[in-house]
Amino acid sequence: MIEPIGNQYIVARPVYSANAFGEEHKKKQRHHKTFLDHLKVCCSCSTQKAKRIALSLFPIASWLPAYRIKEWLLSDIVSGISTGLVAVLQGLAFALLVTIPPSYGLYAAFFPVIIYFFLGTSKHISVGPFPVLSMMVGAVVVRLTPSESTAALELSNSSMSNDSSADEYKVMVAATVTILSGIIQLLMGVLQIGFVVIYLSESLISGFTTAAAVHVLVSQLKFMLQLNVPAHTDPFSIFKVLNSIFTQIEKTNIADLVTSLIILLIVFVVKEINQRYKAKLPVPIPIELIMTVIATGVSYGFDFKNRFEVAVVGEMKRGFQSPSAPDMQIFQETIGDSFGIAIVGFVVAFSVASVYSLKYDYPIDGNQELIALGLSNIFSGSFKGFAASTALSRSGVQESTGGKTQIAGLLSAIIVLIVIVSIGFLLEPLQKSVLAALALGNLKGMLMQFTEIRRLWQKDKYDCLIWIMTFIFAIVLGLGLGLAASVAFQLLTIVFRTQFPKCSTLANVGRSNVYKNKKDYSDMYEPEGVKIFRCPSPIYFANIHFFKQKLIDAVGFNPLRILRKRNKALKKIRKLQKKGLLQVTPKGIICTNDGFKDSDEELDNNQIEGLDQPINTTDLPFEIDWNADLPLNTMVPKISLHSLILDFSAVSFLDISSMRGLKTLLQEFIRINVDVYIVGSDGKLFGFFVLTITSGSWRTVKVDSLSKV
């Protein structure tokens, strides 16, 4: 019975043993599904199931019939046009990160949007090039592309130009990696194993994307300065690129540098205005479009290419490239890179989609997102595009300009289509340094993630360490190896947390009947002879020794040492009792012959295993008080502990190794007359454990969630 009195509760109920509680309150018989049961459900077929599968594979069939034309169409049109213009510029800019001609970035901005329109579950993200993915694909392209001297030697007898052939090979590598990453995403979606992304924490993603932004920044310096910087993909490559840049800094093209700095400054200022006054502006100022139009006009009007020898976009091929099959040799060499690209692409897209799904209250399906992104990348790679996910800035434009559904995305693809088939030639005079500046202008949000370090340090130092180490790994080892090392380090921190848990001794705070860590408060009350020990993690083979040592430190003595001391003293007392030299007095047991001596060495060396056995005093005509003085100054450590309470409410599992270690430890406490209680234990979790340590006169008694061994 529970009676509320003000803001207090008085609880009155019987004290149950485990058996008595089980007899009074019968458990329900529940049928737990087996693997065959799940297989039958999976293989069954019905009209409703077929309809549900069709709607899940083609989400457009769910939301398109409910589309509100009068309310949403105008907003989607405005959003689609704005997003399409941004997509064109980002496609051109991010193609430089892949180290392929800018025109191929338009394919990556077109095909994924079309596929996602039919298969995606998010209504607001804009699918297409993403700088981090572009950088990861570019790293693979650089690694697999022959060096300039090798390529020139191989192509000396070819009718094609060296640059053209090298570009075609780079495009083939990028497309093949994109197809392979799409296949991986598709398989993960079909097999319903999208859960693997849970191993990428927010701290890891933040640190990784920040490092990728630094890689993007360094990679664009050569376009802003127009320097011939050799590509590097091995560890420490970013430092080698910086060394190459600084050793030839005197060769900088001043026109490119000045243009890019002006563009970068204006873009940063206007983006800050967009951010601060987004509530007052009907639509964000399309600064990328404005600066592109101005820069293209100025470059064409003043003939920057010939007068200042700047690098420009060059020929923009009209129409689409014919689809091509991937290179199987490249497949074999890039499987690891493609897996990383697939995971990162999905994590970024799903994270952004989750934000909008919560904001506008509609569901998204992670496995369906994998299928949509996988098919998007397969189609994009087949038509010589590169890997797609979602750019945060582009999705922000689509949502902030009023986009309601993926019809806005479809209209943005139409804008890209117009540029591909009709007006792309107008961008041919555009400087590559302008595209590099536009790409850097979109990195502000990622670079500002450095501020996360302070917040994480205050909240959780382990997460802060994951962020820092992920950043260092990605910078030093490169994006591919850096991601793998970061995941391994993150999992290692989980092992470290459980291997060295923060065990604590609980005590009563101010006699309030609330028990907290005794080190955290000054007014603590600990019941005499009672010790409450809490373990906040699973107990398994890696931390059982740590747990035992912490428990021994908490109680202040080693139960095995006490047991051996008592058994040695018991042997000495038996010898004295047989010789009639003991006398029981009100003050304890005394020896009537002070000259009697015994050999401690003999007791130490003979029958050591016998000292670990339970203390048996049934053959003596008196009881021994181990906390009283013993005859002949026999030294046995005195202990005041009579009850040990183990709070296992946070222990989710025990393995066989930990059960054996825990069994031995608890046996030692019980043999020195210390009662052991296990609090908050799950019956299923500790059922086997109870069976392993219960023998003879030992029994298990359960008082609510309190188990006594």
Task: Tell me about this structure.
The chain crosses the membrane at residues 77-98, 104-120, 127-145, 169-188, 195-218, 252-270, 338-358, 370-387, 407-427, 465-496. Keywords: Membrane, Transmembrane, Transmembrane helix. Pfam families: STAS, Sulfate_transp. There is one protein chain. This protein has 709 residues and is of the alpha+beta class. The protein has 29 helices and 14 strands. Strands 5, 6, 7, 8, 11, 12, 13 and 14 form an eight-stranded mixed β-sheet that branches. Strands 1-2 form a two-stranded antiparallel sheet. A two-stranded antiparallel sheet has the order 3-4. Helix 7 (131-144) crosses helix 10 (202-225). It is elongated, with a radius of gyration of 36 Å. Mean pLDDT is 82; it is low at 148-161 and 687-709.
